[in-house]
Design brief:
Helix content is 80%, strand content 0%. By secondary structure, it is mainly alpha-helical.
Length: 209
């Protein structure tokens, strides 16, 4: 009986089984280590992805806020100009508005001898009757056109600013895309199976050799 036991422990079958279990155990340890390592690596990569997205989204939100503020400011400025256009009715108001908008233009009201200046400049800026160095109607048109030009200038400036902000937004988006392209998250189970396949292939080749 003792001889049989001794022969079993010393037999090639036992040593072969021992090697097999050692290999299985080694593979299990390696696979476990790889799985944990890849899980931690993926978690770090996903955290990096979240950071990139959060930073980009914060920048885009800030740009959107600037665009909204720019649009609101433009609307307010245009509303003020439109209100000025509506308020300009008399000769005096038209002259004052024109001088404020286009300071280089000199407009002098025509005051007939013996007339009250306030009465002349207080009349409507309309019709063909000369009330200044140009007609009242043309004066109003000139004043309105000058204010409209000012309004269009504000809108143009606003559009240019919005284009700049949109371009900044595109840069942020491209930065996000470029950063995310560099981050490759491979599922831990997939990489583990690939590693097992490589190990199995190596063992098979070793046996053949």
């Amino acid at each position: 009986m003792a001889d049989n036991t001794t022969s079993f422990w010393a037999s090639p079958i036992f040593h072969q089984n021992l090697r097999t279990w050692a290999i299985v155990l080694g593979i299990a340890l390696i696979v476990g280590f790889i799985f944990v390592h890849e899980s931690n690596s993926n978690a770090a990569q996903q955290a990096l992805v979240k950071q990139v997205l959060d930073q980009g989204n914060a920048q885009k939100a800030d740009i959107d806020k600037q665009i909204a503020t720019n649009n609101d400011t433009t609307k307010q400025q245009i509303a003020v100009i439109q209100q000025q256009i509506q308020q300009v009715q008399t000769v005096a108001q038209a002259i004052a508005s024109l001088k404020q908008t286009v300071p280089q233009i000199t407009v002098t009201p025509i005051i007939p001898p013996g007339s009250n200046p306030s009465t002349v400049t207080g009349q409507k800026a309309q019709g063909d009757l000369p009330v200044a160095t140009i007609s009242g109607g043309d004066l109003k048109i000139l004043s309105d056109n000058a204010l409209e030009c000012k309004s269009q200038g504000i809108q143009l400036s606003s559009c240019q600013q919005q284009v700049i902000l949109e371009q900044q937004k595109e840069v942020v988006l491209q930065t996000q895309v470029d950063a995310l392209k560099k981050v490759k998250v491979v599922p831990a189970w997939k990489k583990t199976l690939t590693t097992i396949g490589h190990i199995a292939l190596g063992i098979a080749i070793g046996k053949v050799i």
